[in-house]
Design a protein that fits this description.
Two copies of one chain form a homodimer. Chain A is built from eight helices and three strands. Chain A is mainly alpha-helical. Chain A binds a DNA duplex through helix 2 and helix 3.
Chain lengths: 189, 189
DNA sequence: AGTGCCATGTAAGGAGTTACATGATTCG
DNA sequence: CGAATCATGTAACTCCTTACATGGCACT
């Protein structure tokens, strides 16, 4: 629902047409999450259908501006007033991956962790490099959010590795691997 | 793509049918992200279409087990070997919301931040309460991931508030009150 | 004349959610 | 018997992405 409300928020600053909305959105968030232009139009259509937005007659240059409605303002105010619950956030693919890696036969969990850490460290470095450059406040806060998250991810990966060494004997194949294969049955459903 | 690969990983432990897959998935991740049963079946259909999985003849009790194919094993190994890039993660709705709140007229950013912080702190407390209870390793790591992320979010919110007081004069139109209120105390998590 | 950007859309499909329909089995 | 749970599916819909089609306008 972030795009839907994001467009509403942009329209609260005044009338805008589709192409403008995309530019504005990407300007705010520093093009961190590029917004497909196609989605802007389909979302605008849905917003209009739901009465949150009103499409205006086509301008000279072929531009079709939209304006927010009273109902749209109410909806927007509600969005800003309501905290984002952790329950309705998307699944964390990395957490799922590592959790499953633990019980999947033939997967070297340690190497999964370390591969991910290298990648995350690289992106973290790119983020910190970006920080020095420019700086509109909104975009800087978004960037900081990414940095904080990446740092947390690194800490978590370290934490995982520390937990692992206590449970997984070693990276090297255990000689009792043959007997360990009897554990191949699926447990309780 | 997390469900697709998640199901593949579970099937690597042996044949399973749809209902079992959902239980197993939720057991691993502690029901943090409940998995809709309908999606399991549609995903299995797509996986079979793509040759990553093979549907077996119906069992006596009406259960239709699936098994992973060689191609599926390759795909799964690739998933585990490839780090998850920050680029193709879903948009962070909270970051977008705050970034837009800054430039949206009539929005009290400070209160948005504080509302969110209260909510995040509550869920963090729930998480830490959960930690004491049980403990399969995979689920515990998932929980730790959630905790680390929530803590990072709290730090970021504090950071946002600190940045705000320097740029937004104050909620009240009196400039002298703002400078007095600048050192708004928030001890970090 | 051609390249490239501005601007609006549509089509096709993946992923996910909610809801519904349908049976079998199990338990009080 | 009735209710709950197990088990498989389908339908409708939102959100999002990728790709395609189309036209205007500006610059070289």
């Amino acid at each position: 629902m972030s795009i839907r409300h994001g467009l509403l928020a942009l329209l609260e600053r005044g009338q805008m047409y589709g192409y403008q909305l995309r530019s504005a959105f990407e300007a705010e968030t520093g093009a961190t999450w590029p917004l497909n232009i196609g989605q802007v139009y389909t979302t605008l259509t849905r917003l209009e259908r739901d009465g949150l937005v009103r499409g205006l007659p086509e301008h000279d240059g072929g531009q079709r501006p939209y304006e927010i409605t009273a109902e749209g303002r109410t909806e927007l105010a509600l969005w800003f007033a309501t905290p984002i619950a952790h329950a309705d956030r998307p699944r964390d693919e990395l957490a799922i991956k590592l959790a499953l890696a633990l019980t999947t036969p033939g997967v070297d969990v340690q190497s999964v962790v370390q591969t991910q850490r290298s990648a995350t460290m690289r992106t973290l470095q790119q983020y910190t490099r970006l920080k020095k450059d420019d700086g509109e406040l909104p975009w800087r806060l978004v960037l900081d959010s990414l940095i904080f998250q990446a740092e947390a991810e690194l800490r978590w990966l370290d934490h995982c590795e520390a937990s692992l060494v206590r449970f997984v004997p070693s990276t090297s194949p255990v000689p009792t691997a043959a007997s360990a294969e009897e554990e191949n049955v699926h447990e309780r459903a």
